[in-house]
Amino acid sequence: MNRTESSAYAALPTCGTAQVATRDTYHLAEGPVWDPIRERLLWVDIEAGAVYDGRLAGDGRIGSVSRLVTVADTAGTVAISATGSMVVAGSTRLHYFNTEGVRVPGGELMHGEGRRFNDGKPDPAGRFVVGTKGPGNESLVRIDAEERVTTFDDDLSLSNGIAWTADGLLLYSVDTLAQKIYVRSYEPNGEVGERRLFFTFEDGYPDGATVDAEGCLWVAVWGLGTVIRISPDGIPVARVDVPVPHVSSVAFAGPDLDTLVITTAREGLTKSQLDRFPLSGSLFTTDTGITASPPRCGTANDHILRKDQNEDHAYRPSGVGTTRRPRER
Predict the structure, then answer these.
(1) β-pairing, 226-230 with 217-222?
(2) Cα(94)–Cα(103) distance, rounded to whole angstroms?
(3) Chosen CATH of 3-307 out of 3.40.50.360, 3.30.70.20, 2.120.10.30, 1.10.10.10
(4) 24 part of the active site
(5) Rounded Cα gap, residues 24 and 43, in angstroms
(6) CA-to-CA distance for 41 and 261, rounded, in angstroms?
(7) Catalytic residue among 35, 175, 207, 212
C-alpha cells in the first residue's frame, strides 16, 4: 500500500498515473529541468556529481540518456542558459560549463563543515538562488554574476525546492525538515519581501517544487511516495502517487510542457525497502492534463565564462571531445 492512502492527503483526487520513464536508477536523482531550446531533459544524481540529459518521447519514456558532465564534487542542481552553458551547484562552490563542456570553477562561497549546496534555480534575471543542506541553521542565498552572495534566510532546517510564479513576482521556498513552504515577494531588481508561511505539511517532507500555468505549486513529498498540488491560496487540491517512497523533485517538460517529470531516490532506504520498491531512484512521468508556463532558460554565468575563457583548467567532463557520449547502461 502506498503511504499516501493512509496519510493526511488520502482524500485528495489523483491527477494522472506515474509511470517509470528511465531504464536505470540513480542514488539521488534531483533537479529536473526542461531545456526548451534543445528539447531535452536535464537532471542530477547528487552524490555521484553527475548531470544527465535525455530525450522525452511521446509515450512519456526518457531515452537517449547520457551522462553529460561529471564533477569531482556533489551536484546539487543544474541550470542551463539559452546558449547551452550550464551552472552546477557543487558542495561549496558553483561549477560553470561553457558550451564545449569545459569547466570554469567558481570561487569558494562557504566553508563546508558538513554543509553543501542543495536545490537551486536561476531567478528571472539569471541570478542563481540556492539553498544549503547540513547540520542545521541552513541558508537560502542568491549568487550574482560576480559571485556576490545575498542571504535571504539563515535559520532553515534543510533548504530545498524553490519556484517562482510565472510573472516572477513571488518566490516559493521549501524548508524540508520543518515541513514548511514559505512565500515572499520578489522584485525584478532582486529585492525580496518578508517571507510568509504558505503551507505546513502534516505528513511527509516537502522537497523539490514547480509551478504550473494556473499558479498552483507542485511539491514532491519525500517519504510519502506522492506529489501534492497546492492552490495559490495554500489549499491542497490533487495528488500524483508514485510507487516508491522517496520522491525528490518535479518539473514540467516536453514541447507543450504538459508532462510532469518526477525524480526519486534510493538514498536512505534499507535493503528490504529496496527489494520492496525496486524502482526507487527511477524517473517517472505522468500526463496530468495541466501545463506549465514556458520555462526561463537563462543564467548569469556567461559573464563568468567570458571572464575566464582563456583558462583551461585541465578538466574535461565525460564525453567532451569524443565522438559519442557514453550511453546509459
Answers:
(1) antiparallel
(2) 10
(3) 2.120.10.30
(4) no
(5) 13
(6) 9
(7) 207
Given the C-alpha cell 539569471, which residue does it identify?
126
Residue whose C-alpha is closest to residue 128's, from 241, 31, 222, 237: 31
| Contact present, 66 and 328 (Cβ < 8 Å) | yes
Residue 197 in this model has a pLDDT that exceeds 60? yes
- Dig out the grid coordinates for 265 from the structure: 531516490
Over residues 297-320, the pLDDT tens digits come to: 555 445 444 444 333 332 222 222
Phi then psi for residue 90, to 5 deg, are: -80, -165
Q: Which of 28, 24, 294 is nearest to 160 (CA)?
A: 28
Which is nearest to 84 in space by CA: 68, 71, 65? 68
Q: Which residues of 171-189 are buried (b: 16+ CB within 10 A; e: fewer)?
A: bbbbbbebbbbbbbebeee
